[in-house]
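Protein folds are increasingly written down as discrete tokens. With that in mind, we are printing a sequence and the tokens encoding its fold.
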Amino acid sequence: MIACGVIILAAGASSRMGKPKLLLPWGDTSVLGHLIKQWQPPGAEQIAVVHGTGDKVIGSELDRLGFPAANRITNPQPGRGMFSSVQCAASWGEWNPALTHWVIVLGDQPHLRRETLRTLLDLATAHPEKICQPGRRARSRHPVVLPKAIFKRLKDSREETLKQFLQNNASAVTLREMDDPGLDFDMDTPADYEKALRLFARDLG
């Protein structure tokens, strides 16, 4: 069995959306609230949210959701991009020492099917030494599951992006092709949001 920590990246500027995308309504909660709930049933041992230092909007939403302050990671320079948040998470000293794997979760994929997440964790269980990703049309997608030995390398990585880091560790990557149309796009614009809501509603039946 593997023991997973989940990193929810919430430090983005949402410039193309025109408003904080993680606060948009989603079901009976917000996008952020849904992401937190979404990862609880698959068996995450610890969930942490990375947000920008001084980001009162995300902080207030986490307060409203009752998300523990002890599991919030601050990125002092979110303008440096997503990889800076990943490295902040990799450098964080409050992870449960029993964790064996970490899942990097984008803040703009609330529309992924629950079965996609379960299948990804099953893949990581079957290949515990590998970086595991969903595949879609022969291309690697997110979320990404990293075993401890590789996760530890992130904090001192010289790469500029997570994509570059993964490419430089391509021999350690295992993909599983998945039939989830939500893997085809991230929720960056208002049109993406409407499309994601339609997918979510359809999956709910």
Q: What stands out?
A: The beta strands are 4-9, 25-26, 29-30, 44-52, 72-75, 101-105, 131-136, 139-140, 144-147, 173-177. The longest strand covers residues 44-52. Residues 190-204 form the longest helix (15 residues). The CA atoms of residues 63 and 69 lie 8 Å apart.
